[in-house]
Specification:
The protein is of the alpha+beta class and 333 residues long. It has two domains: 2-210, Butyryl-CoA Dehydrogenase, subunit A, domain 2; 218-324, no CATH class. The chain is 39% helix and 15% strand. It has helices at residues 5-11, 16-24, 43-56, 58-73, 79-85, 207-210, 219-240, 256-284, 298-320, and strands at 94-96, 103-108, 111-118, 129-136, 146-153, 158-160, 175-184, 188-192. Helix 3 (43-56) runs antiparallel to helix 4 (58-73) and helix 4 packs antiparallel against helix 7. The radius of gyration is 21 Å and the shape is elongated.
């Protein structure tokens, strides 16, 4: 991954040779059901893998974990739709969003005709499928509120070049759209209320698929942040071990204030990252019939505190070492 960083940033996508290597390593099927050829690893293992990858390149970690989330969400489709998505193999790359809004659709024989535009299509340049949501425009007036989750073949979508950022450029999180595209009913599922939740636990078995969806969504981004923060701290440690400040005779690592702030960043990061991961078993003990916990519940409060610490560490390392986001190294101070 480190050898592809310049190309990833320049082209604003993950280069195909790197995608091929990630596929070969099984990293595009970490949370996919074993029945479909996936690895179906436990959530903690998946998060730790993505955290480590994010040390090398945050964009790659971001796209991998988003793909993993989409692999879980796609299991809400009818069985025939799931079979179509993974007919070509388990390593399908799915980009898009679970966030409601963006599309409009109408009934036709056998499915729907959909138009819309969605934001933040991370991984769209390397994907085979795009996931979005649409509202039905010709449903009955007394229909239950909600949206339809939908998957489009990537070749039926249009990527709109909107992702020109100073960081995380390789995610390729462009806007994307479709115009009057027919979608068969098997590639859609109604989501009551519009907010994503676990709609697959009755058909797909194992602890991973019994978890509430928000055990994954939200926490999945935190491990990218901690991976990037770790790379920044390590890069600063390497710099401190080789640089002599102007007008001084000793290395940066010998300066008490530098030692203090590196230690402080280490403590903030480790406490935040470990607190976040410690919450996973608490979520895992919840019954799938229990709704998403409110944000003032114990695990959620722990997540909030952990994320505040992670953000502080990330902001400190990014402001101190702007070029270190994608340049991990071993800390030897």
């Amino acid at each position: 991954m480190r050898g592809f960083q310049a190309e990833t940033e320049r082209e604003r996508c993950i280069p195909k040779p790197l995608v091929d290597q990630l596929r070969e390593a099984g990293l595009y099927r970490m949370l996919l059901a074993r029945e479909l050829g996936g690895l179906q690893v436990d959530l903690l293992t998946c998060f730790q893998v993505v955290e480590l990858i994010s040390e090398s390149d945050g964009s790659v970690g971001w796209n991998l974990i988003n793909n993993a989330v989409q692999h879980v969400a796609v299991l809400s489709l009818p069985d025939s739709g799931v079979e179509e998505i993974f007919r070509a193999g388990p390593d399908q790359i799915i980009a898009g969003t679970l966030v409601p809004g963006g599309g409009k659709g109408r009934h036709v024989d056998g499915g729907y005709v959909v138009s819309g535009r969605w934001r933040f299509g991370s991984g769209c340049r390397e994907s085979q499928w795009m996931m979005g949501n649409f509202e039905l425009t010709d449903g009955p007036s007394d229909a239950a509120p909600g949206v339809y989750r939908v998957l489009f073949p990537s070749e039926e979508t249009t990527v709109i070049d909107t992702w020109d950022m100073t960081g995380m450029r390789g995610t390729g999180s462009h806007d994307w759209s479709v115009s009057d595209v027919f979608v068969p009913e098997r590639r859609t599922v109604f989501v009551p209320g519009g907010g994503a939740f676990n709609q697959w636990h009755a058909r797909w078995h194992g602890p991973l698929f019994a978890l509430p969806l928000h055990t994954i969504i939200g926490p999945h981004h935190s491990v990218v942040a901690t991976g990037i923060a770790r790379a920044g701290i390590d890069a600063l440690g390497e710099l401190a071990g080789s640089k002599t400040p102007r007008g001084r005779t000793g290395l940066l690592r010998d300066q008490p204030n530098v030692q203090h702030w590196i230690a402080r960043a280490e403590a903030i990061l480790e406490v935040g990252a470990r607190t976040a991961l410690m919450c996973l078993p608490r979520y895992g003990r919840r019954s799938p019939a229990v709704p998403r916990p409110p944000w003032n519940s114990g695990p959620a409060v722990a997540w909030q505190a952990a994320m505040r610490r992670i953000v502080r560490a990330r902001q400190w390392t990014w402001s101190s070492v702007p070029a270190a986001r994608h340049r991990p190294s071993k800390l030897t101070v």
